[in-house]
Amino acid sequence: MSSPQQIADSFQQALNLSSSPNGTNAVSTSPTQSYLSQYMQLNQKPTKALKPFSTGDIKILLLENVNQTAINIFHNQGYQVEFYKSSLPEDELIEKIKDVHAIGIRSKTKLTQKVLQHARNLVTIGCFCIGTNQVDLEFAAKSGIAVFNSPFSNSRSVAELVIAEIITLARQLGDRSIEMHTGTWNKVSSKCWEIRGKTLGIIGYGHIGSQLSVLAEAMGMNVIYYDIMMIMSLGNSKQVDTLDDLLSRADFVSCHVPATTETKNLLSGPQFAAMKDGSYVINASRGTVVDIPALVQAMKAGKIAGAALDVYPNEPAKNGEDLFVNSLNDWASDLCSLRNVILSPHIGGSTEEAQSAIGVEVGSALTKYINEGNSTGAVNFPEVSLRALDLDQQNTVRVLYIHQNVPGVLKTVNNILSNHNIEKQFTDSQGEIAYLMADISDVDITDIKSLYEQLEQTPYKIATRLLY
Ligand SMILES: NC(=O)c1ccc[n+]([C@@H]2O[C@H](COP(=O)([O-])OP(=O)(O)OC[C@H]3O[C@@H](n4cnc5c(N)ncnc54)[C@H](O)[C@@H]3O)[C@@H](O)[C@H]2O)c1
């Protein structure tokens, strides 16, 4: 189905970003270009394009204005794409999902068991966002539907926002701007600083923390980080052994950890007390990580000189006025009354570049799963992949077999497959689900049909797909 050149063309087209599905308003975005270039290792040995046995044309339903980059990828695969700018009411969704092989959504579409049980042909779901809790992942897995998302496409966007916030806090820029908007001219230099030579303490040195470290060093900052894992530093940054060590040395503390029970209120009263006088706190990770009432106390006491928050324990479900108020979080008005506090509505990863990168990442994950059976990156499913077939492997079929993870299944399956030459085979399980991929050589169309029929009749089978 997809030759390397077709994939090359689809990524090349994906680079011609546009803001509408009709392809107008092209924009050029260098970070995205460099992001996409990692996919463009095209001078490789040509590989065989596979096509599905007994599936017909691949139909994809895309909802919630999924990015144009993904649409381009699917069009270039020859898939039939049905695109909607918004989510669909449940009854319409149920109607539409009946026939499609893949569905692409963002956060508003709820793919519950009730909806998914109507999906007769669905093999994969793409969440063109980070979160996947809008999908019943367990039911999807039990139905043989692999779910993909894009957890890291917006790392750079978050890191850049944090750099902006470090400077904004150091220069009290938010306050000066608010003053000017209300007619006040307040030219001050007291307690306004350069960031050069200051120490940034990063808590959580993962995708975002490590990007931030590189950017901060380029701006002349010293970087230290604390992480529960031993992680090799980038540049001259240094890992410290304890959180307290980091807090006692950093002028700016920025959180980049996941929301876990261990990270709940990771920064609270004792941690603010351990920080340097006049230091700054930034949280663009998850709202549970910083104890906001304790932060308010530390700021009122003059211990902390400024804070930038992008995430909150409770966040409004939609945009609108009068939503960030005490009825949502009972400290909201206290927090808003403080000076040198930058508040943003969870926009760390919200950039055009991140959206187009998400389109490419999820679009290509779905394509690889549909065309090759490769489930690497699936969130609810065993991650299995086989190297591509060579062009000269014409009489080879790729078996994709999803089954319940119970004893004896492989024996039955291999009994069926072993009448032929099994070129390669890989199987893995996750919870109750197991996934087997195998390339079987020297088969003709009669053999393929017979393999399909035998596999379909095996007990504990969830789904069978054959690509040839
Ligand atoms: N504001 C936004 O719009 C936005 C966008 C993207 C991601 N995020 C959030 O940013 C956070 C970081 O994302 P990421 O992509 O860098 O994640 P990541 O998984 O790549 O990195 C997280 C790091 O935190 C470390 N860690 C985990 N528990 C820890 C603890 N108790 N103490 C110290 N370190 C710990 C991990 O070892 C890992 O290195 C996540 O919470 C993510 O949800 C926010």
TrEMBL record:
Keywords: Amino-acid biosynthesis, NAD, Oxidoreductase, Phosphoprotein, Serine biosynthesis. GO terms for biological process: L-serine biosynthetic process. Its EC number is 1.1.1.399, 1.1.1.95. It catalyses: (R)-2-hydroxyglutarate + NAD(+) = 2-oxoglutarate + NADH + H(+); (2R)-3-phosphoglycerate + NAD(+) = 3-phosphooxypyruvate + NADH + H(+). InterPro entries: ACT-like_dom_sf, ACT_dom, D-iso_2-hydroxyacid_DH_PdxB, D-isomer_2_OHA_DH_cat_dom, D-isomer_DH_CS, D-isomer_DH_CS1, D-isomer_DH_NAD-bd, NAD(P)-bd_dom_sf. One of its GO terms (molecular function) is NAD binding. Pfam families: 2-Hacid_dh, 2-Hacid_dh_C. Pathway: Amino-acid biosynthesis; L-serine biosynthesis; L-serine from 3-phospho-D-glycerate: step 1/3. Catalyzes the reversible oxidation of 3-phospho-D-glycerate to 3-phosphonooxypyruvate, the first step of the phosphorylated L-serine biosynthesis pathway. Also catalyzes the reversible oxidation of 2-hydroxyglutarate to 2-oxoglutarate. Belongs to the D-isomer specific 2-hydroxyacid dehydrogenase family. This is 2-oxoglutarate reductase. It comes from Scheffersomyces stipitis (strain ATCC 58785 / CBS 6054 / NBRC 10063 / NRRL Y-11545) (Yeast).
